[in-house]
Write a structure and sequence with these properties.
- The protein has helices spanning 2-11, 22-31, 37-48, 62-71, 132-136, 144-158, 178-189, 209-217, 233-239, 248-262, 280-290, 313-316, 322-333, and strands at 15-16, 72-73, 77-84, 91-97, 102-109, 114-117, 121-123, 138-141, 165-168, 201-205, 223-227, 266-272, 295-301, 339-341.
- It is 37% helix and 19% strand.
- The protein has two domains: 2-73, DNA polymerase, domain 1; 77-349, TIM Barrel (Alpha-Beta Barrel).
- Helix 2 (22-31) packs across helix 3 (37-48), helix 8 runs parallel beside helix 10 and helix 11 runs parallel beside helix 13.
Length: 361
C-alpha cells in the first residue's frame, strides 16, 4: 500500500504558478473550483510582495494553502553564488534552474538609479562575435517564472525600493523567447506589481524584425534598444550573423514602425570596435540614420572576451581607443544627436556588457 501511495503522489500533476499572468492565475483557480479572486491575491503575493512561501500568504485560508503546496510550485531558480566589483559595486549573480542549468544576472548600482539586467535564455544562439554569451552556446529559453525570479532574487537582496530600472540585456535574445518575454513584461506592467514602472523597463534586441513589430502591437510601450553596431549591411553581417536572416534594412523599418506606434524614442546600442565601426563614414551613417527617427545612441566600449578564450575573428577584435571614441562622439553631438557613453561597469568581474557567460559542463 505504501508503494501505491508513493506512486500516486509522484504522478500527481504539479503546476508551476510562478510566471503565470494575472488572467492565467485567475483561470487556474477557476479550473480547480476556487474563486477567481484567489488568483489576484496570489498574483499580489508573488509579484508585489515577492513571497515564495504559501505560509506567508496571510489572506489565503490554511486549507487552500496546504492544497496548493501539494499541486503547485513557486520556485524556479536557486541562488548559487555572487561576486561584487570592488570598483563599481556591480554585483553578478549565478542562479541555477530546476533542471540544473546556470545563468547570470547583474545589478548595476549608480548614483541616481539601480538597474537589474535580466537574462532570457540559457546561453544565446546568435553568435555575435563581440559577445561572450554567444561564444558559450545555447541550451534553451528561460520560462517567464525564471525571468521574473532573477528580478525577485536581486530585488530582495538589494532592497525592492532601491531597484529603479530593468533591462532585458543579459544572456540571450529576448525576442527569440518572445512569448515568455511578453508574459514577463505583462506581469511588470500590472498595477498590482509595484516597484519598477513599465516605463523604466527596456528590451534590447539584436534585431528580430517581425518580433519588433509584434512587440509594438502588444501595446506595452516598453522601451526598445536595437543592438546596431554598424550602419552597413556587410560589416553588421560579419559581426552579427543574425543580420543575414533579418537585414539591417528590415530592422530599421521595424524600429521606425515601433517608434510611430508607441511614440517612444529608439535607443541604438553601438559597441566601438577598432578599425571596424569607428571610422568617419560610420559616424556619418549614424548621423543619417538618427535624422530619420526619434532616437539616441548608447556608445559602449568593447569589453574583453579573454575569459572565454575566443578564436578566429572574435579573438582579433580590439577596443577603439578612448581618444577616438571621444572624437566619434563629438562628431555625432555636433549634429545635435543625443549620445550617451556607457561607463563600463563590472568588467573586473566579467559582468560588463557582452561578458556574461558560463561554460557548459
Amino acid at each position: 500500500m505504501g508503494d501505491e501511495t508513493k506512486t500516486t503522489v509522484q504522478e500527481k500533476k504539479v503546476t508551476q504558478l510562478k510566471g503565470m499572468t494575472l488572467d492565467e492565475l485567475k483561470n487556474f483557480f477557476a479550473s480547480i473550483g476556487k474563486p477567481r479572486f484567489r488568483g489576484e491575491q496570489i498574483f499580489n503575493w508573488l509579484y508585489n510582495h515577492l513571497v515564495t512561501n504559501y505560509d506567508d500568504m496571510s489572506n489565503i485560508p490554511k486549507v487552500l494553502r496546504n492544497e496548493l503546496k501539494e499541486i503547485t510550485e513557486l520556485k524556479t531558480l536557486e541562488y548559487l553564488t555572487s561576486v561584487i566589483s570592488p570598483i563599481t559595486g556591480t554585483k553578478k549573480y549565478i542562479f541555477e534552474t530546476n533542471d540544473k542549468l546556470k545563468i547570470e544576472s547583474v545589478v548595476i548600482p549608480e548614483e541616481k538609479r539601480t538597474t537589474v539586467c535580466l537574462s532570457t535564455q540559457v546561453g544565446c544562439p546568435l553568435d555575435c562575435t563581440f559577445c561572450a554569451t554567444g561564444l558559450m552556446g545555447y541550451k534553451r529559453n528561460l520560462t517567464t517564472g525564471e525571468i521574473f525570479d532573477q528580478y525577485m532574487l536581486a530585488a530582495k537582496d538589494f532592497g525592492k525600493d532601491n531597484v529603479t530600472n530593468i533591462v532585458f540585456m543579459g544572456m540571450g535574445e529576448p525576442l527569440l523567447n518572445y512569448n515568455n518575454t511578453i508574459k514577463a513584461l505583462r506581469i511588470f506592467s500590472e498595477e498590482l506589481t509595484t516597484g519598477v514602472s513599465i516605463k523604466k523597463v527596456t528590451v534590447s534586441t539584436a534585431g528580430i524584425a517581425p518580433k519588433i513589430r509584434e512587440l509594438a502591437e502588444a501595446n506595452l510601450k516598453v522601451k526598445l534598444a536595437l543592438s546596431l553596431h554598424s550602419c552597413f549591411e556587410d560589416i553588421r553581417s560579419k559581426i552579427m550573423p543574425i543580420n543575414n536572416k533579418y537585414s539591417l534594412k528590415q530592422n530599421i523599418d521595424a524600429v521606425k514602425f515601433y517608434a510611430r506606434h508607441t511614440g517612444l524614442r529608439i535607443t541604438f546600442e553601438y559597441i566601438m570596435l577598432k578599425d571596424i565601426n569607428d571610422r568617419d563614414e560610420d559616424a556619418n551613417a549614424l548621423i543619417g540614420l538618427c535624422s530619420e527617427l526619434p532616437s539616441k545612441i548608447n556608445i559602449i566600449p568593447f569589453n574583453s572576451l579573454e575569459h572565454m578564450n575566443p578564436v578566429g575573428f572574435a579573438a582579433e577584435l580590439e577596443p577603439t581607443p578612448i581618444q577616438r571614441i571621444d572624437e566619434f562622439v563629438e562628431k555625432l553631438r555636433n549634429k545635435n544627436i543625443t549620445v550617451m557613453i556607457r561607463d563600463t561597469q563590472g568588467d573586473d568581474i566579467s559582468a560588463a556588457c557582452g561578458q556574461l557567460a558560463i561554460k557548459f559542463e
